[in-house]
Amino acid sequence: MDCNESGLYALLADETTDKSTKEQVTICLRFIDPHNKYEIREEFLAFQEATDGISGEALADLLLSSLREHGVDVGKMCAQGYDGASNMSGRYRGVQARVREINPDTVYVHCKEHCLNLAIVHSCKEQCVRTIMGTVQDITFALDYSSKRLLAFCEELSGDENVQEQMDQRTKLRTLCETRWTSRADALLTFLRAFPVVVRALEHLQENGDVKAGQHLHVILKWDFIIDLVVCEHILQSTVFLSTFLQNVSCDLMEAARESEVVINTLTNERNDPEVWNALFEKASDVAGQFDVIPSKPRTAGLQGHRNNIPCRISHRILEEVMHSIHMTLELTDRLLGGTVHDRFLAQYLVASSIHRITLDIKGRLFDAFAQYLTPHDQHVFNAEKRRWETKWNGADVSIIKPTMLQDTLKECNWDLYPCISTMIRVLLTMPVSTSTAERSFSSLRRIETYLHSTMGQGRLSDLPLLHIHRDQQIDINSAIEQFATDKKKRASFWILSVFSDIQCMYYTDNYGLLGFT
Q1: Are 48 and 16 within 8 A, CB to CB?
Q2: Are residue 224 and residue 296 in the same domain, yes or no?
Q3: For strand 23-32 and strand 515-517, is the pairing parallel, antiparallel, or unpaired?
Q4: Which of 7-11, 297-301, 469-473 is predicted with the least confidence, judged by mean pLDDT?
Q5: Which of 2, 94, 151, 168 is most buried (CB neighbours < 10 A)?
């Protein structure tokens, strides 16, 4: 197998419940292509039913036995990536702990896409954010899943060409995903762009006796809702591209940390920039002004009932009160850049553009972190190689552009001259960033195991997604038919194999001597 030829691979796994209410575990592998030594691949391997439960011990045994069954060398596993569920990530009884008992060199990496999602979830627990999320979801469901209300929305939308252009030819609002919070940015953006149409549709429904529409209209025509909607959409929008980037197969941990830091610094700078607040305030004011909603500061005292709201004259004061309630930067820093850092990540200092930052302490720890992968296992050989590598890049001409990424550095690292450094970079590249490939396999499972095909056997359930996922690979149809005809004893005796133009025909006689073909 290619993963065995590569010499190193990372295990990716996740679990889901299929259409027949069985727990299915997907197994994927991440490795560097042995034929193209600079390309990272993540490949689906199989689905396995968790017949013994979903405890850490049962899932670890299932994963290891499945790898051995498919001919994958467990000893070449250098990392493992799962979500943050306790049965997967548990320090003592989780899957990652059980696997490390078999192979101590398999470092566990918490899926960064899940970390980003958790950061957004925890930062959006404030009351103002939960209120607008719930309101948008209620209105979206009301307008999307009722033919009468959807008709009213579509009629209002057809009469507003400006909103049609902003919605990119969409004819419905986007519902908020319950699990992928980064996808909520698109739903909030669609709702914000269609806000005038939503208001007019609700007004039309209210005039026709729809009480629920009147209640929704009363909620969204308030300054608090409009300003919270604008701010939350702006904040979540900054995480969309990071989420997409983390799902990329070619993404490595060094790039993931770097781009996460960019998003964190961007949010921090915007939080301290009055111009950003003024721009968001003006945007919210423009939306509110279309419906005579006056920007106002919420009441300071909850029991105050006989004093009018104070008109807001300083734009960024209100926005700072809203923004400070969303601890996005703290959550992103803690979950994407925090936590325990393994010494393997020190290999990032071997990148040509960062070689000048390497210290004596890092040099000593590098060999210990990768000693089990180095040949020969001699620190003096590694030190000599490292000195040559430093000399190469520190003395390089100014006109030479130094690589800034692991893959580019690996291309410049000749295996014959720098075997140890090349191995270290390969190990760090192989370590997974997210389990998105495992998540994508669930989409194939849902397309194949439908309600009408919910009783298929486990072997077929695993093989059909494999064919679907690798559908770009060519299959020799004639060889497949021949193997099917001769593989095992069947009630029908196949005796002629013929191919007419583009139609494959297989003639057979059954137990009654009748002639047929498929």
Answers
A1: no
A2: yes
A3: unpaired
A4: 297-301
A5: 94
- The last residue of one of the domains, among 110, 126, 141, is 110
Give 337's DSSP letter: I
Domain membership flag for residue 440: no
Q: Quickly list DSSP for 388-408.
A: HHHHHHHTS-TTSPPP-SHHH
Note whether 218 and 323 are same-domain residues.
Answer: yes
Does residue 487 share a domain with residue 423?
Answer: no
Q: Which residue has the tokens 């670890």?
A: 60
Q: pLDDT tens, 345-386?
A: 888 889 988 888 888 888 888 888 888 888 767 788 888 988
Number of domains in the chain: 4
What contacts 153, CB < 8 A, 6 or more positions away? Answer: 143, 172, 173, 197, 198, 201
Backbone φ and ψ for 43, nearest 5 degrees, come out as -120, 140
435 domain residue, yes or no: no
In a domain, 149, yes or no: yes
d(CA 461, CA 56): 24
Q: Which two tokens stand for residue 263?
A: 């998003």
Confirm if 350 and 156 have CB atoms less than 8 A apart: no
Q: Distance between CA 450 and CA 432 in Å, rounded?
A: 31
Same domain membership, residue 289 and residue 155: yes
Name the one residue in this structure whose structure tokens are 């400070």: 324
In a domain, 446, yes or no: no
Q: Which comes out higher in pLDDT, residue 307 or 333? A: 333
pLDDT tens-place string over residues 240-257: 999 999 999 999 999 999
141 and 276 belong to one structural domain: yes
pTM over cut 0.85: no
Q: What angle do CA 410, 416, 417 make, to 5 degrees?
A: 75
pLDDT score recorded for residue 510? 44
* Alpha-carbon gap, residue 420 to 367, rounded angstroms: 9
Tally DSSP H helices, then E strands, for the chain: 23, 8
Domain boundary among 413, 430, 447: 430
368-407: b (≥16 Cβ within 10 Å) or e: ebbeebbeeeebeebeebbeebeeebeeeeeeeeebebbb
The DSSP code sequence of 254-301 is HHHHHHHHHHHHHHHHHHT-HHHHHHHHHHHHHHHHTTTPPPBPPPSS
